[in-house]
Amino acid sequence: MIRSSLVRALCFSALLGMGASASAAPVDPADPATVSAEGADAPLDVGAAEAPDLPVVERLARPFGIINGSAAALEEYPMTGGLLMDADLEISGRTYGVATFICSSTLIAPDVVLLAAHCVDELAITQGQGEITRMEHRWARELDLSTFGGFRVEWPESSVGVTKFVKHEDFNIFRMGLGLADNHDIALLFLDTPVLDVAPALLPSADEVELVDVDTEVVVVGWGQQTATSGAQTPPRGTYGIKMVGTSHVAEINDVEMKIGDATTDVRKCHGDSGGPSFQFLDDAETDDQMRIIGVTSHAYDYTDCFRTGGVDTRVSAHLEWIDAQMRAACADGTRVWCEEEGILPTTYNDLPEEEEPVTDEDVDGDEEDDKGGLGCSTTQPDGGLGLLAGLGLLAVVAGRRRS
Fold first, then answer.
1. Which residues of 202-218 are buried (b: 16+ CB within 10 A; e: fewer)?
2. Contact of 205 with 324, CB cutoff 8 Å
3. Which residue, 320, 317, 166, is CA-closest to 256?
């Protein structure tokens, strides 16, 4: 059985933070057996060398943006979204309905979403307490996901179904380490309908991997906790489940993970931000879209949780081959519904079509019509590319992704 305090310290997902969103959470705040031995309002001893010894069920009483960030607009980083879950959890012969926001995440192809493995790991979700007998996921981009859940599940209108998820085969919640470790905390969701009105986030190419180092500026996006809380203390309504954005930096890095933010005044991540992105902008990129997703929010740096310092991301660059292989395999077995690009999208995927040379009077014989009955000007590009209106639309999408 996984200890609640360990999961809380390790994982930055909301997990089963169900106080505000479960249809029937098996927790009674008045019952001391279901909350921390120190009481629901007892502060976390952030100076402790080891995690406090708390009952497993306590974590279920705690619902779980980004600390020191700001509210985001829908058109800001529109390829980001939240993972929602509706499930049945059986504990000691009783079944409880659970509807909750789980994690933040990022669209990396029209039908593929990148997030953390613990967001879809059953043991991480249940913390070893009971068994999930039914589970349904959907992906949504609404600004406010805090109200999802309750006795009657109503999926957000724009949500998209998830047909399958795949987590890294080497991820193991029992072996998950603090600091910078090799946790393989990465996963993919495959959607049942492609999202075609949003430009996906692009992954770094092999040549761009080395451009990430300590002090690299990153933009972080997430729906997680905006203030750190401890024990069974519920964050105030409006301070979690809301899309937030902020600019931070890489504070520490190795080949597989990196710490985002350091001081308490930095923009940092907290519970619910798990699976969400850290974006880097490459000023010298030879592509129209200069943004790359370089990190996936994973876990706390130490047992002070979100109170004192920044959290840790899984580096995308360490898992490029795994991501590409899983995307291609899902095309091969029919899981994916969009396979125009079977593997990782090329960094030129969001580029605007090249401008054509302007047509002059010398280029057009005004006395002759073209083979389509026009006056020598086709309404489409010769190579079948996007027309002017479509190109402007894509320009707006790409521009909307850049920093303000």
1. bbbbeebbebbeeebeb
2. no
3. 317
The token duo for 46 is 């952030």
Beta bridge partners of 268: 67
Question: What is the pTM (predicted TM-score) of this model?
Answer: 0.76
Tokens representing residue 243 in the block: 């899309």
Assess contact for 312 and 248: CB atoms under 8 A: no
Strand partners, 245: 70, 221
Q: pLDDT tier at 156 (50, 70, 90 boundaries)?
A: very high
The string of pLDDT tens digits covering residues 52-82 is: 332 222 222 222 357 888 889 899 999 999 9
| Residues forming a β-bridge with 85 | 100, 137
Q: Are 76 and 245 in contact (CB under 8 A)?
A: yes
CB 253 within 8 A of CB 50: no
Q: Give the whole-angstrom CA distance, residue 271 versus residue 269.
A: 7
- Domains of the chain plus CATH, in order, are 4-319 (2.40.10.10), 353-404 (no CATH)
Helices H, strands E: what count in the chain?
4, 13
Which residue blocks in 258-382 are alpha helix, DSSP H?
320-332
- Give the other-Cβ count within 10 Å of 263's Cβ: 11
How far is residue 256's CA from residue 106's CA, in Å, rounded to a whole number? 19
